[in-house]
Amino acid sequence: MDNYNKELENNLLEMIKQKEQAEKRLLSVEVFIGITATVVLFALVFVAAFVQMSNGLRITLIVFGFVLFLAGCFYALRMEQVAGYYACKECGHRYVPTYRTVAMAPHMGRTRYMRCPQCEKKSWQKKVLSKD
């Protein structure tokens, strides 16, 4: 029985480690999507600005670039919201906020100014991968 409990504990620790690695990869993909969407937007706007074409095609390129950019931003933000946790600076509580909360919160990188659901205080909360 003791051997079974040790094996169970080892399996649990391995699953936690794999989950953290998967979330780390997800956050890397988020950065890739954000950079790609931005490059595509600038490329399409650059082409629309400097290549001879009709005004209708020019407007279509710019609108298409902004649509792709916004879709990439929304998708990347969703990835950031679900991967890992945010840690409250005041009480240390770690939680997954709603998409709306993450989208509306001022941020610097992956640190967002949000209200903690436990202590109800607003603070700059950092993105962390583990619950502990």
Explain this structure to me?
This protein has 132 residues and is α+β, with helices and mostly antiparallel strands. The protein has 2 domains: 1-83; 85-132, no CATH class. It is built from 3 helices and 5 strands; from the N terminus they run ααββαβββ. It has helices at 2-50, 55-82, 99-104; strands at 85-87, 94-95, 107-108, 111-115, 122-128. The chain has a 5-stranded antiparallel beta sheet with strand order 2-1-5-4-3, with no helix packed on it. β1 and β2 (94-95) form a beta hairpin. α1 (2-50) runs antiparallel to α2. The longest helix is centred in the first third of the chain and has 49 residues, at 2-50. The model has no long low-confidence stretch (mean pLDDT 93).
Kindly list the characteristics that best describe this protein.
132 residues, alpha+beta, 2 domains, 5-stranded antiparallel β-sheet, 3 helices, 5 strands, elongated
